[in-house]
């Protein structure tokens, strides 16, 4: 398939890099041309406002300083945990199939070998704890708890900020009200780009045009973009809507934009902090920290202490995550699950794709079982395989593959979402779990359905996972024996694997040996409901 392992594909594709950077480079060149040929453009005259002459709201009330600080703290946590998640599948694409070699950027030197089994987990990278939260390799389960909890509070903080902005007419600082802001902002840009400082207004009363436009874009463009592209990666949301697949924006476009927005935030922070320093650090710090407009040093000291606290909070976050991972998982679940339950879990998946949409390459995860039992069954074409269905049911059964195939068959072409970030479309055929439930008849006390694998997890020990009885009964929940119109192969879960289209891939147990109906999951291994939840601290509701 495509490139030989030696033909090194570039780490960043020019076809993506150029459209992103060329406008900036051209703007800087234009600024220099204008400066050299016509001199610096005039920026609008600045009124020297005083508390007596200022007409619009001025100064910084405490709520701006507080939301500004909370925002910074949460953005740092979001960026660090987000990078950790990214490193678990260190490739970004514009196509939903994630075919190796089609990524527009990769954060790994590895070219995916196509001549041997190379799983997506093999592809995960190590990230230093100085950058990543929590750092390490394949720690995305814990990173996700930080990311989602931070995201929740970040959106809440943003909502408070924007509400107060419009409740108080502080919005006049941020929202341009005249088209003149564009030529004025350009005039300021020509100054900055050529390393000149234009006459600056006092930020306590008003911003210059470029500053206003930039703040507006960060708050009203970047933030909504990251909020929208986050859920665009959720299987529950994406597979809920059948029109979604027709949009140009797929999971990988969302993921790529989510990352590019992070880059934009980072660029903004560098530029913003530079400008705060060069235009009068002490005074600017008093504005935002104390809400005063003078040259005292107090605001600077408190502000810098705030940064020290921010660094300490991050050190503590890493430390707590390594020492008390189970507690982090519990807190994450406790805060995030109710939101997911409210927004997503009530919806059944129903999106279907077309045969033409099927991915040419489908990343594998997990290695085929090594047990003698599975190998013997496989050697015999699974003729002796019996699926054991037991537990709290009226009618426990053991079913051969032929018997399973003789029962109600359903085919669905769906989009798979792995927790690591990759996706792929495949056709699956099998027995709907709802049909199996009609035969075994779960008792009224049953809340959980547990799927056990012949295979082992990353750290050894039996792989398993569980679903609520409601989720097991979803119309697209299948015990699949065919993939892309052929019997399931060894890598993708032969003889039988689960498909649950509203949740992440790790919930879809491959190489199933038995299915247990139970009141809860406490009696199974560590009791968290699945191998990944037990060992890797993955979320128990894998809808996002
Ligand atoms: N038994 C078992 N099932 C498993 C896994 C595993 O490691 N062992 N990996 C899971 C994960 S993380 C994903 S994304 C999907 C991958 O399915 P695929 O290999 O068909 O792409 O299988 C899931 N089922
Ligand atoms: Mo996965």
Question: How would you characterize this protein structure?
Answer:
By secondary structure, the protein is of the alpha+beta class. It is built from 16 helices and 14 strands. A five-stranded mixed sheet has the order 6-5-14-9-10. Strand 7 (410-417) and strand 8 (423-432) form a beta hairpin. Helix 5 crosses helix 6 (209-229) and helix 6 packs antiparallel against helix 8 (251-278). The model is unreliable at 1-8 (pLDDT under 50).
What's the helix and strand layout?
Elements: H1 14-38, H2 62-86, E1 91-92, E2 105-106, E3 126-127, E4 136-137, H3 140-168, H4 171-174, H5 181-193, H6 209-229, H7 235-238, H8 251-278, H9 281-290, H10 298-323, H11 325-343, H12 372-379, E5 387-391, E6 397-399, H13 401-406, E7 410-417, E8 423-432, H14 433-440, E9 448-456, E10 462-468, H15 469-472, E11 478-483, E12 486-487, E13 497-499, E14 512-518, H16 531-536
Parallel strand pairs: 5-14
Antiparallel strand pairs: 1-2, 3-4, 5-6, 7-8, 8-11, 9-10, 9-14, 11-12, 11-13
The structure holds ligand MTE and molybdenum atom.
